[in-house]
């Protein structure tokens, strides 16, 4: 069945591809943040444990929104670790990171998600895909704020 939502097939495919990369980044960041929530230790334990929980909970909701937008555009949403590993710009953290190194890794991950969303935005905007553009704008706002909050923990 054809899809006639006012966005041509080629634009829908390019936007869905970009959103698939955003989904992979978001899921990878979710998994990393959840890992750090479980394994953080040190004097900032309580603060970081709670902050990481709030962030991974928000990310868990975000992956669903991104995947559903990909589906609304008529494309399959990636959903395997191998697909995420191939599509994500975020690398896996080393084992045994200190709390400060966890924060640094998460800052880099948050910023990576912003860059991915910012890269996809012009595709959605030029195709007049308001729902995708709105989703991308919201994701950039969340991740820019999270990166700022995490960076603030590194300042003395």
Give a summary of the structure in a few sentences.
By secondary structure, this protein is mainly α.
Please explain how this structure is put together:
The protein is an all-alpha fold and 156 residues long. The chain has one domain (15-154): Ferritin. It has 5 helices and no strands. It has helices spanning 9-39, 45-72, 81-87, 99-126, 130-154. The mean pLDDT is 97.
List the helices and strands and how they pair.
Blueprint: H1 9-39, H2 45-72, H3 81-87, H4 99-126, H5 130-154
Family: Belongs to the Dps family.
Organism: Niveibacterium microcysteis
Protein name: DNA starvation/stationary phase protection protein
- How many helical elements? 5
Helix content: over 70%
Form type: elongated
Strand content range: under 5%
Structural class: mainly alpha
- Rg (C-alpha, Å): 16 Å
CATH C-level: Mainly Alpha
Q: Biggest sheet: strands, sense, closure?
A: none
Number of domains: 1
User: Could you spell the SSE succession in H and E letters?
Assistant: HHHHH
> Spans of 5+ residues with little confidence (pLDDT < 50)?
none
CA-CA gap between termini: 58 Å
Look up the CATH topology. Ferritin
Give the overall pLDDT as a whole number: 97
Corresponding CATH superfamily:
Ferritin, core subunit, four-helix bundle
CATH architecture: Up-down Bundle
